[in-house]
Design brief:
Number of strands: 10
Largest sheet: 4 strands, antiparallel
CATH class: Mainly Alpha
Shape: globular
Distance between the termini: 38 Å
Structural class: alpha+beta
Strand content: 5-15%
Number of helices: 19
Number of domains: 1
């Protein structure tokens, strides 16, 4: 986002600060400032709503949120990478599977999530009529989409997979401020129902697509919609993701087909994959990026960024802590252009070859643009939906339509369960270090081997077998939240 903060944005940030400072005395879930104008009461025009939404987008950039932690967790807690022995001391609990109930990262994810939800609620409940103004309708659409996305990621982090235990405890659903409210945890199924409702509402309210410009009549302000905004088909792709995690394959298929046919996005061709991710110049045509958490003039390169701290190759201030296993690197064929997004290097203090992630370079201004939704996901969800609906021919055909843009020599013609294995392998290679793999393994109920280190011959020497019942698959509910809200129960094992 390239917009400057103004009065209302600062109010958002101030409220978020209050949530962090007084977490021991007030619940994260609902807070109301008593010494300033309530944000919802300050949203009186479409321009006010646009400004408020800028603050909401800014909140997503938090380090322990979409800015870094979600991308890290989704891969570091899976089977394709590990934390270098020469690490900076960050995310050790992710690599070792040893969370405690006082884990600071889990607490920050919880508070950042509910702060974003609170801000989205202010926009949704502001009282402006979307039917009377297409701009208001679009802005409200984005707020609904963000709320749905955040609730989905909260329930994934703090609750069991829908496919495992839909009736188990998820996270509290809060859609408006209520004085003295102490909400209990809703079930996983109830949270999924809310997420689907929010995303469906977002799609129905959307009036502008990415690439279009909104014009505000009162202020002559314009708002050019790009990958920084949760537009209609970004919301639809997230909805397809939710159906996938729910195991609702008919709706996953229908939604993914709609995205592919009508969104206007396209797949990056094999010859352009490398430059799309790590070209020296900033991208101007992000044809595949549907939504990303973007940097701005106030939050560009520096402490807290995904690239600088963990994933980027050392040099220029980067640590390069998270490494791909050699076994994973070897799954890419020599003709698969994505192999060039992992860089085998020598690293001081690390045994064997360090396979650095090169998706997040430290040499251009795109490095802080953390991708949350990409068009390729629609193809891979569709292929999986076809498989689960028994349409093997279309599953293979869809997979081939996708993979030709990554590896021109790859052709899939499998049968039986191998089709699903092919799809999951392609998902692992396509979304490597974007935070997908852990969720694929857990929604499938797979037992997997988590690599924790390797020797000089690149053999994994330290590892843990992770089964569906492992306590540390879930974050602990923050202890501070439980202390102030007795209706919120802790996850098993903490």
């Amino acid at each position: 986002m390239k917009n400057n903060f103004n009065k209302i944005t600062k109010m958002f940030l101030a409220i978020g600060t209050i949530a962090m400072l007084f977490g021991c005395s007030k619940t994260f879930l609902d807070q109301k400032p008593f010494n300033s104008v309530v944000v919802s009461e300050a949203i009186k025009t479409e321009d006010d709503m646009s400004t408020a939404l800028t603050g909401l987008y800014a909140s997503l950039r938090a380090t322990d949120f979409y800015g870094r932690t979600f991308a890290i967790k989704g891969d570091l807690m899976a089977d394709k990478c590990f934390l270098s022995s020469a690490n900076s001391g960050r995310y050790l609990s992710f690599n070792l599977y040893n969370f405690t109930k006082t884990d600071g990262t889990a607490s920050a994810v919880w508070s950042n999530g509910y702060n974003a939800i609170k801000n989205a609620n202010f926009i949704i409940n502001a009282g402006l009529d979307p039917a009377a103004n297409p701009n208001v309708s679009q802005l409200m659409s984005e707020a609904y989409a963000i709320r749905g996305l955040v609730y989905f990621d909260l329930v994934r982090n703090f609750g069991l997979p829908y496919t495992t235990a839909p009736s188990s405890a998820g996270v509290p659903i809060v859609t408006k401020f209520e004085v003295n409210s102490k909400p209990a945890r809703n079930t996983v199924a109830e949270v999924y129902t809310q997420v689907i409702a929010d995303l469906t509402k977002a799609i129905s309210l959307a009036k502008f697509n990415q690439g279009q410009t909104m014009n505000f009549t009162l202020t002559a302000k314009t708002r050019a919609l790009n990958s920084s905004f949760m537009t209609k088909y970004a919301a639809a792709t997230v909805l397809a993701r939710v159906y996938q995690h729910k195991g609702d394959w008919a709706n996953a298929k229908a939604t993914a087909l709609d995205v592919i046919a009508n969104s206007g996005f396209s797949l990056v061709t094999s010859s352009n994959v490398i430059s799309y991710w790590k070209g020296a110049a900033p991208l101007t045509g992000k044809v595949e990026t549907m939504f990303e958490v973007t940097s701005d003039a106030n939050n560009q390169v520096g402490d807290g960024t995904l690239a600088v701290f963990l994933i980027g190759k050392p040099g220029g201030g980067a640590y390069g802590d998270m490494l791909a296993t050699k076994a994973f690197y070897d799954t890419y064929t020599t003709t698969d252009t994505r192999k060039g997004l992992i860089s085998p290097e020598v690293r001081s203090g690390q045994l064997g070859t360090a396979h650095y992630v090169a998706k997040y370079p430290i040499d251009n201004v795109n490095l802080d643009d953390v991708k949350v939704v990409r068009f390729s996901e629609a193809y891979l969800i569709l292929a999986e939906a076809y498989y689960n609906l028994g349409d093997i021919a279309n599953a293979n055909a869809t997979l081939n339509k996708f993979v030709v843009n990554r590896d021109p020599n790859a052709v899939y013609a499998s049968s039986g369960s191998q089709v699903l294995a092919d799809i999951l392998d392609e998902r692992a290679k396509e979304f490597a270090f974007e935070g997908y793999r852990f969720w694929d393994l857990t929604r499938m109920g797979y037992t997997f081997v988590k690599s924790q280190g390797q020797d000089a011959s690149n053999t994994i020497t330290t590892k843990i077998t992770v089964a569906p019942g492992n306590t540390n698959l879930l974050f602990p509910i923050p202890n501070d939240e439980i202390l102030v809200n007795p209706n919120v129960t802790q996850n098993a094992g903490y």
